[in-house]
From TrEMBL, chain A:
It holds the Pfam family ATPgrasp_ST. Keywords: ATP-binding, Ligase, Nucleotide-binding. This is FIG002781: Alpha-L-glutamate ligase family protein. PROSITE patterns: ATP_GRASP. GO terms for molecular function: ATP binding; metal ion binding; ribosomal S6-glutamic acid ligase activity. Coiled coil: none annotated. The lineage of its organism: Bacteria, Bacillati, Actinomycetota, Rubrobacteria, Rubrobacterales. Residues 47-296 form the ATP-grasp domain. Residues 93-113 are annotated as: Disordered. InterPro entries: ATP-grasp (IPR011761), RimK-rel_E_lig_ATP-grasp (IPR039523). One of its GO terms (biological process) is SOS response. PANTHER family: BETA-CITRYLGLUTAMATE SYNTHASE B-RELATED, RIBOSOMAL PROTEIN S6 MODIFICATION PROTEIN. One of its GO terms (cellular component) is cytoplasm.
Length: 296, 385
C-alpha cells in the first residue's frame, strides 16, 4: 500500500517497502505498550532497567531530584569532566558538557568557560522542567561520566561524539548505522543537522556505505578518512547489548542509541520508542519488507 | 454505533480503495465548497417574494448624494425605519437638527419625538424611498433598522442573516466578502458547525501531504479569527502580533524565566498589541470583533514554538513551519464561509460535524506514504545499490 501514491505519480524505485510516518505511528501504537513508552521517556528509569538486565550504560555520578538536592549539592564532588542531562529532555536539549577543569572553572568542548554559577543555573532550569516535554513542570537532573570515543571512531570525525543507532522490531535487529558528526552538524550526530549516516553490516560490523545530506560519500568530507570498510569496535557486544534491550524495555519497535567508549566499550545511551525513519535513506532500502520478517 | 460500523466497513475494504476514496472525496468536497455558487437560494421558499434575513447590507443615500453601504437590522415589529444619527449627519450630510418633519414614536420609555428624514435605499436589488427616524445607534453594528412600513414585497426569515447584496437578491460569493473591510459578521452557529470540517484540512495536510504546523488545530482557530476580522486585516494584525513577540523574545531570554512565565509575558504583549490595533480602527463593531475573536493565546503559543524551533532546527525550518501554519489558516477561512457550508449548516446542522468525523476517520486510516515523504525518502527507494 505504501507504494500506491508513488505508483500513481509514476515515480521510479522500490517505494512499496518504504515505511512512512503514518505506518510507523500505527506500528508504534501496536507494538509499544504505553507503560514501556513512558519508561524510555525517562533516561534515568531506562538506565535502571537496562543495568538490571546487564546492559552496559554510562555510569551515573549523581542525581538531583529537587531544589533541596540542589542546595545540598557539592559541586566540588564533580570530576574534571562530566555530562549534565535532564531526565526527560526534549531531543537532547539542556545537556551541558564539561571536558576539563582549569582555575576552578570547567571547560566546554568548544572551549567556553563553565563557572560554578553556570552549572547551578542550568541545574535550576532543568529541575524546573525548562528542557522537558510540555506536560511536566518538574524534572530530575543527573551527572554522567563523560564518554571518550573509541579511537577507531574518533579519528573519523573532526569533533563530536559518533553514535550507533539500531532499529529493532519484534526481537530482531533490522538495520544499524553509525552517525558521524561533521563541521556542518556542529559536532552533533543528528542527520537533520548535517551529520553523516553510515550503514553498518549487522554480521560483520563493517561500514557498507555512507550518506552525507542526500549524497552518497565514501569518505568523511572534513577528515577525508575513508568510511566504507571501517569496522566498528566491539560489534558483537553492541549486538548483544541491543538484544538485551528488547526484554528489559518491553518495546516491540525501538531504536537503540549506543556509543563506544575508549575504556568501557559499548554503552547504551538511550532507547527510542518512536524510532526515526532516516535510516532507510542511509541503507537505500525501505523497512517494510524487513518488518514482515524477510531477512536482508 | 456509527463509528463502529464505519470502522468495520473500512477494514473489510481494500486499503488502497479507502485511500483513493478518501483523497477523491476530499478533493471534490474542497472544490465544491469553494467554487460553488448558490443557484436557487430564493427558490427554496417557494414564493415570488424576495427573501431577506434578520440582518442585511444596504446602500443608503440622501437627495441623490453619494451612497453608503451599511448593515441594517430587519425588525418586522417596528414601524418606521431608523438611521443612526452620526451616519445621517456626518456621512450623508443630513441636517438632522432642522428636519423637514418629525414623528412621535411610542416606545417602552414613553413617547419620543424624533426627526424624520427622507432617504433612498437599495436592498436586495430594489430601490426604495424610505422615511427614516434618526436615533443614536453608535453602539450597534447595524447602522439602520427597517420596519414593517418598508418591507412590502419582502419575506423576512429571521433565522437567516445576510442572504442578499444591495444590488442583488442573492449573495454572489461569501468568500469574496472575506476580502472586504470590515467583513460581514459571521454566524456563530455556522462557525461551530463548520469547524470540524476545517479540522479535516489539518488532518489531511498532516497525514496525506505531511506538512508541519504549529500546534495541531491552532491554524483552524486562526482561520476562525480570520473569518471574523476579514482576511487582509486578520493577516495584518497577526503579523504585527508575531513581530512584536519575536522582537520581545530575545529580550526575555537573558532573564531565564520558566516557560510558563515567558508565555505569560508574551500573552500580555500580544494582547496589548491587539488592544492598540483595535483602538486605531474607528469602527467600534470591528474593534469588538477583533478583541473578542483573536486567539491571543494561540498567537503567543505560535511565537513560543517559533523560537523553540529556531533554537532546535534553525531559522529556516521555523519560518517554514510558521508560513505553512498561516497557509492552512488562509486555506481554511474561505471554506468556513463558503456558500455550500452555510447552506448545509442551515439545512442540517449536524451534517457538517458528521462529515468531518467520517473524513477524519477515513484519512486517519491511511497508512501509506505522505506526499512530502516521496522527497524525503527518495534515497530509500533506490533499492540495493
Amino acid at each position: 500500500m505504501s507504494g500506491a501514491l508513488a505508483k500513481a505519480l509514476g515515480l521510479r524505485g522500490d517505494w512499496k517497502n518504504v515505511l512512512g510516518m503514518n505506518a510507523r505511528n500505527a506500528r508504534v501504537a501496536a507494538e509499544n505498550p504505553p507503560g514501556a513508552i513512558r519508561l524510555v521517556d525517562s533516561k534515568l528509569d531506562t538506565k535502571k532497567v537496562l543495568e538490571e538486565a546487564g546492559v552496559p550504560v554510562p555510569p551515573t555520578l549523581s542525581v538531583l531530584q529537587d531544589r533541596r538536592d540542589l542546595r545540598d549539592f557539592d559541586l566540588e564532588s564533580l570530576p574534571d569532566s562530566w555530562v549534565l542531562k535532564p531526565d526527560r529532555g526534549r531531543q537532547g536539549s539542556g545537556i551541558l558538557v564539561a571536558n576539563g577543569q582549569e582555575d576552578g572553572e570547567w571547560k566546554s568542548p568548544s572551549g567556553h568557560a563553565i563557572g560554578r554559577g553556570d552549572v547551578e543555573e542550568r541545574l535550576r532550569l532543568i529541575l524546573e522542567g525548562e528542557f522537558s516535554s510540555e506536560e511536566i513542570e518538574h524534572d530530575r537532573a543527573f551527572f554522567e561520566t563523560l564518554i571518550v570515543t573509541h579511537p577507531t571512531l574518533a579519528r573519523l570525525v573532526p569533533s563530536g561524539l559518533p553514535d550507533l543507532r539500531l532499529i529493532c522490531y519484534r526481537q530482531e535487529i533490522l538495520l544499524g548505522m553509525i552517525r558521524l558528526p561533521t563541521k556542518q552538524s556542529d559536532g552533533k550526530a543528528n542527520l537533520h543537522q548535517g551529520a553523516i549516516g553510515a550503514l553498518v553490516d549487522l554480521d560483520s560490523g563493517r561500514v557498507e556505505k555512507a550518506m552525507f545530506g542526500h549524497e552518497r560519500v565514501e569518505e568523511h568530507p572534513d577528515t577525508q578518512v575513508r568510511l566504507v570498510g571501517v569496522e566498528v569496535p566491539a560489534w558483537e557486544e553492541v549486538i548483544d547489548a541491543t538484544r538485551s534491550c528488547f526484554k528489559a524495555t518491553n518495546l516491540g519497535f525501538l531504536g537503540v542509541d549506543a556509543v563506544i567508549d575508549e575504556e568501557r566499550g559499548p554503552l547504551v545511551l538511550e532507547i527510542n520508542a518512536r524510532p526515526g525513519l532516516e535510516i532507510q535513506n542511509v541503507a537505500g532500502i525501505g523497512l517494510l519488507n524487513l518488518l514482515s520478517g524477510n531477512k536482508r | 454505533m456509527v463509528l463502529i460500523k464505519t470502522h468495520f466497513v473500512l477494514r473489510s475494504r481494500s486499503p488502497r480503495r479507502a485511500i483513493v476514496v478518501s483523497i477523491f472525496a476530499l478533493a471534490v468536497l474542497t472544490l465544491f465548497l469553494v467554487m460553488a455558487r448558490p443557484a436557487t437560494a430564493q427558490g427554496a421558499y417557494g414564493s415570488n417574494q424576495t427573501v431577506i434575513g434578520g440582518e442585511e447590507p444596504l446602500l443608503v443615500s440622501y437627495e441623490g448624494g453619494e451612497s453608503l453601504e451599511v448593515l441594517t437590522n430587519v425588525d418586522t415589529g417596528a414601524g418606521y425605519a431608523a438611521i443612526d444619527e452620526t451616519v445621517a449627519r456626518d456621512d450623508l450630510g443630513i441636517d438632522v437638527d432642522n428636519p423637514p418633519t418629525t414623528v412621535t414614536i411610542q416606545s417602552a420609555i414613553g413617547d419620543e419625538e424624533r426627526p424624520l428624514v427622507p432617504v433612498q435605499i437599495q436592498i436586495a436589488g430594489q430601490t426604495l424611498n424610505v422615511q427614516a427616524t434618526v436615533s443614536d445607534r453608535a453602539n450597534l453594528t447595524t447602522k439602520m433598522n427597517l420596519g414593517s412600513r418598508d418591507l412590502d414585497g419582502f419575506l423576512v426569515d429571521v433565522s437567516e442573516r445576510q442572504l442578499t447584496e444591495p444590488d442583488s437578491p442573492i449573495v454572489e460569493s461569501y468568500v469574496a466578502s472575506l476580502l472586504e473591510f470590515p467583513p460581514p459578521p459571521p454566524n456563530p452557529a455556522l462557525l461551530l458547525a463548520a469547524l470540524p470540517l476545517a479540522a479535516v484540512i489539518v488532518v489531511a495536510l498532516r497525514s496525506l501531504v505531511g506538512l508541519r504546523t504549529f500546534g495541531t488545530f491552532a491554524p483552524v482557530l486562526l482561520a476562525v479569527a480570520f473569518v471574523q476580522s476579514g482576511l487582509l486585516a486578520g493577516l495584518l494584525v497577526f503579523s504585527v502580533m508575531m513581530l512584536a513577540g519575536l522582537v520581545l523574545e530575545p529580550l526575555l531570554r537573558p532573564l531565564h524565566l520558566p516557560r510558563v512565565a515567558r508565555l505569560g509575558v508574551l500573552l500580555a504583549v500580544v494582547a496589548a498589541v491587539l488592544i492598540g490595533a483595535s483602538s486605531v480602527v474607528s469602527d467600534p463593531g470591528v474593534a469588538t470583533t477583533w478583541t473578542s475573536a483573536f486567539p491571543v493565546v494561540i498567537t503567543a503559543i505560535f511565537i513560543e514554538r517559533f523560537w523553540e524551533l529556531w533554537e532546535q532546527e534553525g531559522f529556516k525550518e521555523a519560518s517554514k513551519v510558521a508560513a505553512l501554519s498561516l497557509l492552512v489558516a488562509v486555506i481554511a477561512s474561505p471554506l468556513l464561509v463558503s456558500y455550500p457550508v452555510r447552506w448545509v449548516s442551515q439545512q442540517a446542522p449536524v451534517a457538517l460535524p458528521a462529515a468531518g468525523a467520517i473524513l477524519s476517520l477515513l484519512i486517519g486510516r491511511y497508512r501509506g506514504l505522505r506526499l512530502t515523504e516521496l522527497v524525503r525518502f527518495r534515497r530509500a527507494a533506490e533499492g540495493k545499490s
